[in-house]
């Protein structure tokens, strides 16, 4: 090594040392803001830099521990680290604590986690997120879920609570969460059938609620009675035990209900009027659709994928969707075109219409399409006076589909844009190019409509 290169390296080391000294000389408040930009694991590692940094991370108000991809030995080391350091954490307020563990190992005892949460509550926790996904096998199937400390249910600082998987909801009699606005309960365990309602009744200002049913949940009714609620997402894992969904949320603006299709069976739905409802998303085979519709007549945006009996009316006559502006309809169901005709007739102010095929619903797409105009005595008002945007994706191109498509294009007098995307299906009898040419030459109600026709690849 030459003398010049040696001097250069010494100069670089001196510069690095000076830079570290400059950073270490910054005020604690600024250094903590820098550490907050790092993952907790990385922030902890700064303690080896110097005496100045040794305990600085222990003033962090936000802590996140994720060992979902750790080995058993790494999980054990993290448990010991949290047990050793969390009781001596120096931040007067812990704004957020995120704990995520995943795997077949029972490293994290429920009792230890209960103590960690209790410590966070004692430090005015604002956001708590717990996810404990245990792979259930013969040896740990009877594992006890994590029990939350009773102090959590009376925490006056908590604003966001996110609980997932092996967490037990056991609500004490005097529960009160006066400032909780966001609550997410995914696949949790309830101590009894009233636990959910007791928890919800303790949240007077709750605005956003997500409920996902666990496969081990054997309670038959979910009751959501929250006057302040504005957003509700319900994800139902179908089991023979589930019988009823009751929703009483007069302030609701957004409502989404989805379910899987693993088992047959239906459940009833009941609700009060929701006059502030703006957006609804439905992906359900077993939902009592007729009763559901009567509760959402004020909706402005509607996305729908439902199972329907072609021998029965989808919903009773006399229901109008006068506020509906945006409609998105999945074409996987046998009777989707009949539902489309009914909704067009009952939505006089519709401005946007999209027909699509939900990912994973391709199997139901190839049911024969019913004569879709059977429910129409005249052209729907929305086609004549309000519809401006029309989109149909994943179109196969059958004769009945093209008939429906031509009907809409011929009667939509105010249409500004139309987008038609055919499925990539080489087995079709009529080539896409011929269908596109036929549609381009077909009559259109709007002379100014910009029509885009293509094939998805």
Automatic annotation (TrEMBL):
Renumbered residue ranges of the record's region Disordered: 1-20
Gene3D superfamilies (UniProt xref): 1.20.1280.50, Ribonuclease Inhibitor
InterPro entries hit by this protein: F-box-like_dom_sf (IPR036047), F-box_dom (IPR001810), FBD (IPR006566), FBL13/AtMIF1-like (IPR050232), LRR_dom_sf (IPR032675), LRR_FXL15/At3g58940/PEG3-like (IPR055411)
Matches recorded under Pfam families: F-box, FBD, LRR_At5g56370
Span of domain F-box: 20-56
Signal peptide start and end residues: none
UniProt protein name: F-box/LRR-repeat protein At4g15060
């Amino acid at each position: 090594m030459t003398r010049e290169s040696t001097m250069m390296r010494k100069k670089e080391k001196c510069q690095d040392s000076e830079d570290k000294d400059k950073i270490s000389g910054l005020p604690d408040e600024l250094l903590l803001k820098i550490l907050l930009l790092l993952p907790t694991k990385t922030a902890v590692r700064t303690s080896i830099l110097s005496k100045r940094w040794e305990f600085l991370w222990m003033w962090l108000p936000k802590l996140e521990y994720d060992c979902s991809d750790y080995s058993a030995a790494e999980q054990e080391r993290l448990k010991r680290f949290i047990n050793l350091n969390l009781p001596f954490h120096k931040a007067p307020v812990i704004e957020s604590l995120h704990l995520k563990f995943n795997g077949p190992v029972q490293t994290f005892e429920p009792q230890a986690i209960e103590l960690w949460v209790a410590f966070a509550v004692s430090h005015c926790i604002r956001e708590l997120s717990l996810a404990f996904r245990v792979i259930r096998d013969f040896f740990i199937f009877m594992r006890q879920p994590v029990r939350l400390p009773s102090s959590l249910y009376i925490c006056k600082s908590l604003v966001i609570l996110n609980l997932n998987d092996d967490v037990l909801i056991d609500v004490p009699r005097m529960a009160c969460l006066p400032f909780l606005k966001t609550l997410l309960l995914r696949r949790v365990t309830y101590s009894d059938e009233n636990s959910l309602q007791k928890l919800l009744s303790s949240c007077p200002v709750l605005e956003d609620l997500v409920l996902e049913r666990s496969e081990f949940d054997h309670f038959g009714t979910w009751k959501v009675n929250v006057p302040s609620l504005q957003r509700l997402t319900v994800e139902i894992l179908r089991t023979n035990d589930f019988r009823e969904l009751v929703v009483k949320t007069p302030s609701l603006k957004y409502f989404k209900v989805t379910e899987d299709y693993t088992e047959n069976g239906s459940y009833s739905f009941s609700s009060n009027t929701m006059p502030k409802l703006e957006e609804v998303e439905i992906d359900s085979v077993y939902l009592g659709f007729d009763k559901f519709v009567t509760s959402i007549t004020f909706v402005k945006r509607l996305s729908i994928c439902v199972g329907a009996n072609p021998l029965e009316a989808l919903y009773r006559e006399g229901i109008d969707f006068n506020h509906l502006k945006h409609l998105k309809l999945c074409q996987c169901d046998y009777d989707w075109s009949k539902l489309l005709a009914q909704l067009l007739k009952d939505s006089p102010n519709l401005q946007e219409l999209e027909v699509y095929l939900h990912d994973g619903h391709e199997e139901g797409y190839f049911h024969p399409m019913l004569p879709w105009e059977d429910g129409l005595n005249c052209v729907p008002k929305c086609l004549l006076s309000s519809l401006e945007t029309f989109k149909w994706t994943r179109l196969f191109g059958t004769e009945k589909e093209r008939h429906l498509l031509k009907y809409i294009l011929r009667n939509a007098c105010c249409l500004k844009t139309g987008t038609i995307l055919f499925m990539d299906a080489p087995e079709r009898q009529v080539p896409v190019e011929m269908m596109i040419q036929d549609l381009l030459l077909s009559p259109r109600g709007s002379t100014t409509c910009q029509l885009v026709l293509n094939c998805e690849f």
